[in-house]
Amino acid sequence: MTAYDYDLITIGAGSGGVRASRMAAATGARVAVIESLRTGGTCVMRGCVPKKLLVYGSHFAHDFEDSVGFGWESAKPGFKWSNLIDAKNKELDRLEGVYHNLLKGAGVEEIFGKGKLVGPHSVEVDGTTHTAETILIATGGWPSLPDVPGIAHAITSNEALDLAELPKRIAVVGGGYIAVEFAGIFNALGSEVHVIIRADNILRGFDDAMRDGLRDEMTKKGIHIHSGTTVSAVVKKPAGDLTMQLDGADDLNVDQVMYATGRAPNTKDIGLEAVGIATNSRGAIAVDDYSKTSIDHIYAIGDVTDRINLTPVALAEGMAFVNTVYGNNPTAADRRNVASAVFSQPPIATVGLTEAEAARHGPVDVYESRFRNMKHTLSGRDEKSVMKLIVDRQTDRVVGCHMMGSDSPEIIQGLAIAIKCGATKAQFDATIGIHPTAAEEFVTMRQKRD
Ligand code: NDP
Asked: Which structural domains are found in the chain, ordered by start?
């Protein structure tokens, strides 16, 4: 027994914090986790999960349209936004209960309130100080908004998930994951959607074929993408709607403005200065390969460290932390070939290098396919899927695998294992496809692109 209240205090009960706390407790450690909002954190309460439920809910609009080509006659049932939001909220309540039970079952004590470091081994919550031998910071991130006049009138993804009404017209500022996902949700549900990006294309960092493919599909669906455009002010009109004053473009009148211009690490008011924990130039907690901060017994994982800001990566970092500190097995989370998906409509999924990244490492062969899904031969929908394999010419290894199209996240998850195992193009070619699927295209691409 130590003189501390706990062996481990985790600040933040999001995906990474909960996983690390439970697994540490399973090794016999006495663990407490502190949370100021809802147990489950960003992904479960304000991000991935509610977002995906709204993607499912909105996608029915396309399914009803598509069904006509298959003989269905009554293809446009009414939609009630408040019913979708209520159903989503009920599911979040259920999940929060599941998280409470998981922690309880693991013997982890939950402390509700905002945790602040007040000493090297001390965390204060609402005036009470708790001590621990080891501290894990897993406070995540929060939407970051630029300093634009009238920005207070804008919402973020946090509020977009809980709007009282479906906006008739909405402008989404930013062209990253969150912007294109919410643009797809509102567009499918019937809102007039404007996406305002300062760059010339959406999804910086993704493979160009996916970026161009999604931009085309979003445009076909009626989403207005205003590229090379910046917002100079958001003005609230007496009637309650908003005017966006744009640089070099006409004013835009909308009912809601949503900013999705990135997320910042949640490091404010958690006492980093009190203990001397170093942050990096992006304001994130600086950590080594083992997620250790500048203080020996204080660790940090997940979005607060701004490495790869994805839930499964935070889970891997949590597991690596537990192995390192409680398993006598120093472990660095493996961040190579992390697959990810954008739940746009259609979705994009990707693993490995983009063509531009791969080309910087040496000569590559590129296999690319663009086709209309079998389903749309009858539905009549003018939607293309795009697939791309990038192969290292010297080793024949597939170093990048990208897809835009229905079910791409489900397809790429499987291929991510092959990429992780170092599969070659010859091994892809030797794999027999499943027919008729879109996925089989990945094992039948024979023609190199010029
Ligand atoms: P991203 O970093 O993905 O994108 C931010 C977007 O905002 C970019 O288009 C960027 O433009 C633009 N931008 C940034 N600053 C400004 C500014 N001052 N004015 C105008 N535009 C600006 O952030 P998101 O908010 O979309 O998502 C945050 C993170 O959350 C992601 O990086 C991802 O890790 C995670 N996430 C993952 C999801 C998933 O896995 N499906 C879903 C949602 C989020 P430019 O390209 O010009 O820099």
From this structure: 6-142+264-326 (3.50.50.60), 151-261 (3.50.50.60), 340-443 (3.30.390.30)
